[in-house]
Amino acid sequence: MAKRTWATGVTFRNTKPSKYGSPLKAIHQACQKCMGGMRGCVEECESAPCYLWQFRMGCGPKSAAKKGIDVDRKAHPETEKWRDGPRKYPQSQLNAIRKFCLECVEGSKEVRECGEVDCPLYPFRFGIRPETAIKQGKIIEPIEDVQ
Question: What is the residue-averaged pLDDT of the chain?
């Protein structure tokens, strides 16, 4: 990758955009799918215990709060009553996807062998970017574009 320098002296690397899209976009698409494909319903989602909930609008929690979107889990009473008690929620969207996938199939071996290729979260199921998973050998063959 070539490096460039701005006139201000800041150096950055040229990177090409991922063919898999962004994890935030994948989360937003998964939330739309969960809500029956209805775009407007994602913001009103009441499933605060879901690992993806704070990223459901396709942006981080701070950006969502600035837009006036509810991202405070404490305001939702069902958060504390989730299955086996209070949870520790991930701060990163990739970690949220990983935890969501682990819960969906109940184990890391099943995540590796997941066959739900039409799921928007599929390329990010290891909690890392698909390009990194390919380099690390977690994915042997490149993933087909799921979008």
Answer: 75
